[in-house]
Amino acid sequence: MTEFALQADRIFNGDQFLENHAVVVEQNRISAVTARSELPSDMVVENLGSGVLAPGFIDWQVNGGGGVLFNNDTTVNGIRRILRGHYQGGTTGLLPTLISDTQSARGLAVMATRAAIAEGEQSVLGLHLEGPYFAAAKRGTHHEAFMASPSDAEIAWLIDNADLPLLVTLAPEVVGCQQIQRLSDAGVIVCAGHTNADAATVNKALRAGLRGFTHLYNAMRPATGREPGVVGAALVDRQAWCGIIADGHHVHADMIRLAWHAKPTGKLCLVSDAMATVGGVHRSFELYGQTITERDGRLLNSEGNLAGSAITMIDAVRIAHQLAGIELGEVLRMASLYPAEFLRQPKLGLVKPGYRADLVHFNSEFQVQQTWVAGQAKLPSNKRVLS
Fold it and tell me: Which residue ranges does the record assign to the Amidohydrolase-related domain (predicted)?
């Protein structure tokens, strides 16, 4: 179908909830959001019934899904399996995320991401390289053998690949301000993470072009009364974005709400930090030769450290709304519009004419019923009612 309409009891367009409305999709774009009564009589209409139709979710930290860990399968096929795992959770755009590994693995990740985009995988919005330029004391599940400072050649290589787009998470005490500025000036999105820096060091990095913070609170120096640390610097800064893992394990619900109160509107984004088990059938996988196992909703390595999460974005939306008490419309923006702005994606994150038709429909139990990318349904469904 080149043109059709989706109607649901409630539509969230990014600004407000609409009732008795429909979204008209033409080709891969939204052409109109209109009252049901104004739809042409001959238009094909898909009646979604109850629930909410909203902008598709955008996740900038996806280590794996569909049974695949990106580090273990840095191929186009691996990316496609990850995408399929996350469509089930309402994600329509993501950054495949490679955690600390060899330069060879980083090269393969770049090639696979480029190839996926070239082959038409519109859900792939770029690449996230999480490490290896981290503080050993805050490495978490990242392997200590890969912790290092970047060489000039490695910085130049990152700059050469800034067109992807490319997000790099690093520790500002390991990577100097001059290097951060070079990356930022080239268009690389630079985030702080796995860092033990003091607030003064973080603030210098912010002035040099640091754009955000990866998984706020986790693997970073906490705030105290005498030293704001990374967390304090992140919460106080008015320009930087923060990703936060709302899985019920990485961050307490009250601390999610605290971050939401502290940050300016639009600067707090939900991320999944998802691993291979998400959207897959197995409850364990291999990382660095260790078995990572899901227990009671948590992923743990042999040292007992959290090793990513076992959630999709719809889980993060539910937890941020129900447990952290953030209004649903704002939570949906934290999962769509704000990440789109952070990633410089101007035609994603809203249900408005001219925007790409990336959509998610979920019910009152926060179960995803269907996901669309560029107007194409991604989940098999026997619930459609065409009229």
Answer: 53-376
